[in-house]
Amino acid sequence: MPSSFGRRKSLCKGRQKRVIDASILREKVLHGLDERNVPPELWNNPRAKRFFRFVREEVELQEARVRVLEHYEEVIALEDEATCQCHLVAASTPEPLIERCYVGVVFLAYLAASRFADHIPYYREEDILARVGFSIHRATQWRWMRVLAGIVLPLVELMRQCVMQSWVQGIDETPCDILPLIDAGPHPQAAWILGEIQKLYDIEDRARDMTDDHRLALRQAESRPIVTGIKVWLDARDQDELPKSPLRAGVNYFRNRWEAFERFLEDGRIPIDNNRTEAAIKGPVMGKKAWLFFGNENAGETAAIFYTLTMTCKRHCIDVQAYLLDVFRRIRTATPAELESLLPDHWIQSHPEARVVQRVQESHAAAARKRQRRAQRRIAVPSG
Hints:
Layout: H1 2-11, H2 40-43, E1 75-80, E2 85-90, H3 105-116, H4 122-130, H5 138-164, H6 191-206, H7 212-240, H8 246-256, H9 258-261, H10 275-280, H11 282-291, H12 297-315, H13 320-330, H14 336-341, H15 344-350, H16 357-380
Antiparallel strand pairs: 1-2
């Protein structure tokens, strides 16, 4: 029995000592003594030995960097004095993989791997590259990938031919939705209610800069009659539509949440929708499609803490990596006042260089387009 137990124990690996690959570049960080913390008899004593002793090692990740390669051709020029002609001989320069593409093949390979191996959407890759100061628009990334697909098509075709020569061929298909390029439009009978909801948002747009009391007064005067009309319409559809009709499903969804919907009529501080909250949890909703689950409750709590920080940073268009780096450096010794300065909305005021300008511009442009559309609707359909 003892020998058997001993064998099982020896087979159990347990927690092993981590060995860092010797090929990784190493750098020494020297922490010198502060004279104020050393007794005078030691600091000035020539017999005292001073040396650095090893304490620990840490693996750090160096920030990714982009570089510009300037291509030059060597040229030999000789002018013929008799004919006044110049003879030029230039070195050959490799053609770019994609015509008029301003990134090199290493960059293109990285983008292709990120999109099709790491499954990073183009807009996420746009944010990742923005951290190193060189953002590439998602549409440009897609266009390059489309050209590259044509370039590698002969190789893929050859692979297909090899597969077709096999005796047995295995197939496993999985569906993938395609974003519609044509809008099929709403349900014909839902056009009226969609128009009424647009009127409510037009009112909210006008009330955006009002005080809470004035906003509530405007809602009571103009929004409440519209909401009452919507309720009458929903009740009628609930009676007339077939139980399994698509419109009936939408009507039931709306009626089941009616109390929450009309809550904005009670207080000017309450928004008409929950869009901002839904946007705040967009990160974990998208992320769970990749990592599927948490390992335990502690992992879930950890994620909730960090999502609180990161999603708040995203709302304020803050470079998440720059923000967290500063927080990690300062949090251990921060005073209460310094801790408040680490709040994302406060932190960005003293670190304007960390604001993702592109996201700010896109947000402002989207808001301007939305206001313009609503203004055009108000002109096309005068109130009253």
